[in-house]
Amino acid sequence: MAAGIAFADVEVGTELPSASFPVTRATLVRYAGASGDFNPIHWNERFAVEVGLPDVIAHGMFTMAEAGRVVTDWLGDPGAVVEYGVRFTRPVVVPNDDEGAVIEVSGKVAALLDDKRVRVDLTATSAGQKVLGMARAVVQLA
Fold it and tell me: Where are the beta strands (DSSP E) in the chain?
């Protein structure tokens, strides 16, 4: 598959539209049900604090997926993602209030590759701290 974006229309430094993703405790409960990951650090504040966390935290794979949406929304075709990987650097802490947390994601084309592929580097933060490191996707363009 190839995205609707033409390889000739991008260059190193091309910025993807940034996005903000709100995360509440209800979001985490829904994700736990969809993923089957019911680890209490994602829903039980007492347990999370007992194991040394500041509060309930978002699932790492949820955070990774939200960051990946910046790439798939830009591409218009999730099937054009050839590779995607991240390192988890900090958890997204989700307080038990009406606001929760927000994951802020931006991205830019970092390298032009062979066969009309590009590498996109992502930056994901929450509460002003970087939550993903080495967040990169290789995508196939038209």
Answer: 15-23, 81-88, 101-112, 117-126, 129-140
Q: Distance between CA 44 and CA 134 in Å, rounded?
A: 29
Model pLDDT for residues 57-73, shown as the tens digit of each residue: 999 999 999 999 999 99
Q: How far apart are CA 126 and CA 32, in angstroms?
A: 20
Model pTM? Answer: 0.94
Question: What whole-number distance in Å separates Cα of residue 34 and Cα of residue 54?
Answer: 25
131 phi, psi to nearest 5 deg: -105, -15
Residue with tokens 């939200």, as numbered in its chain: 66
Pairing of strands 117-126, 81-88: unpaired
Task: For residue 102, give the 3-state DSSP assignment.
Answer: strand
**Residue 26, Cα to own-chain centre: how many angstroms?**
18
Q: Which residue has the tokens 């985490």?
A: 28
Q: Which amino acid is at 18?
A: S
How far is the C-alpha of 132 from the C-alpha of 62, rounded, in Å? 12
